[in-house]
Design goal:
8-stranded antiparallel beta sheet, 6-stranded antiparallel beta sheet
């Protein structure tokens, strides 16, 4: 009876509304259907383009050129791996137009409060570049599970297809110091997938037997979590990033203070973490992965650091920083450089008698003349940013580029190349400048 009454009410309303009102309702509904179909079609086209194309950061000209020569479609992204689209939601294929949409300067937008600073003393670096596709990386130590190097969207990644508690570890030449950072990229397509990172040897497979704290990364939660003898310290949802694309994960530890970042977001801020340090770092699939739902890891960087720039300058007359990052083969400063640039800018503001030479250095990859010119442009870009953002007088800053001519480490190993890519600040005598 109630259902019949409801039907009668609808009929009565339509009758009272009249033909014009009914026609308007039908047209509105039809319009929404067409718009939804168009939106679905646009999303489908975007999905196909991203799935079939090679991802290149919009100003990585080498990546773009290689993809074009191979005949593969290019998908342009920003620094965080987000596909750059036009107002209609379609991928932009013109690098210049993509730059207009994507370029974000340090300190702007979500990066204004970003405070991660990478360690300067590189203890380990691996990007799988010297291994064969399909192999397990030679510089990692296999423990358990199905791990292999794959080529995905123009870059090499480490793929895990299970089982639960699949594990590998990094063995360092020394124990982790009080201050250290761990950086890697991750993509976990399934929402339940999680990766545990332990800073001490594991008694056996799994994280449940870990007596101290460890890190957890995943769509359900990323943070510092406890082992058998303590409660959860911090846990916050990543709100949809790791399951959608390759996402930078950064961990920063100073004594008992630990912070975790997913992309530009800080997701854990823990002042009392119990992190036992050793020369082993274990990566453990704590839930599951299979052929249809593999887990992916990008390059891994482990470093010690945390020096106060001004203290080192006062004591030694120069200081090295690897916290200023540039786009590949470019002098464009990446937004992750915000904390280091802020420290330098505030140092110059607080010490008006401080004059600096900003020196750029590269590794030995590529042409020597090009590297020298690139390092000069990068030093000039740092000066320009400090002058513009912190109103530092131009005559207080000099620049120089040395390219690959002054290495501080062995360019034949990945860690050495990381050490050689740097910006040095040299204290000048104001009277002679």
């Amino acid at each position: 009876m109630k259902r019949m009454t409801a039907v009668l009410l609808v009929v009565l309303f339509n009758a009272l509304a009249g033909p014009a009102a009914i026609e308007a309702q039908v047209w509105k509904k039809a319009k929404k259907t067409v718009e939804k179909a168009a939106e679905d079609e646009a999303l489908k086209a975007l999905d196909n383009a991203v799935r079939d194309g090679v991802r290149c950061v919009f100003d990585d000209l080498d990546c773009i050129e290689k993809a074009e020569k191979s005949g593969e479609p290019v998908v342009l992204t920003d620094d965080q791996g987000n596909v750059i689209t036009d107002d209609e939601g379609q991928p932009i294929t013109d690098p210049d137009k993509a730059a207009d949409k994507a370029e974000v300067k340090p300190g702007e937008g979500v990066w204004s409060n970003y405070d991660f600073v990478a360690g300067d003393d590189v203890l380990f670096y691996e990007d799988y570049g010297k291994d064969n596709i399909g192999d397990f990386p030679r510089r990692l130590e296999f423990v358990r599970g199905n791990w292999e190097i794959v080529e995905w969207q123009g870059q090499r990644l480490l793929r895990n297809t299970g089982p639960r508690y699949a594990t590998f570890k990094i063995v360092l030449s020394e124990s982790l110091p009080e201050q250290f950072t761990i950086e890697f990229d991750a993509h976990f397509p399934h929402g339940n997938q999680r990766m545990g990172i332990s800073t001490e040897p594991l008694p056996k497979a799994g994280m449940n037997h870990q007596p101290g704290n460890y890190f957890q990364v995943g769509q359900l939660g990323t943070g510092v979590v406890a082992g058998q003898e303590a409660e959860v310290e911090a846990l916050k949802s990543t709100e949809g990033s790791i399951d959608e694309q390759l996402t930078p994960i950064r961990i920063m530890v100073d004594g008992r203070y630990a912070k975790v970042y997913v992309g530009e977001r800080r997701v854990a801020n823990v002042p009392n973490a119990q992190l036992n340090r050793s020369n082993e770092i274990s990566f453990v699939n704590t839930y599951f992965a299979d052929d249809e739902n593999p887990m992916y890891l990008g390059s891994i960087r482990v470093a010690g650091g945390g020096k106060d720039l001004y203290d080192v300058l006062e004591a030694e007359g120069r200081v090295t920083t690897r916290g200023i990052l540039f786009a590949t083969n470019s002098d464009r400063i990446r937004p992750e450089s915000t904390p280091t640039l802020k420290e330098i800018g505030e140092m110059l503001t607080d010490h008006a008698d401080l004059w600096l030479s900003i020196e750029g250095h590269t590794d030995s990859d590529g042409d020597e003349t090009y590297n020298q010119e690139l390092s000069q442009r990068r030093a000039a870009a740092v000066k320009a940013y400090l002058v513009e953002s912190f109103a530092i007088e131009e005559n207080r800053l000099e620049t120089a580029g040395f390219g690959e001519s002054n290495p501080v480490a062995d360019n034949s190993i990945p860690e050495g190349k990381q050490q050689n890519r740097r910006v040095e600040l040299v204290k000048l005598d104001a009277a002679s400048s």
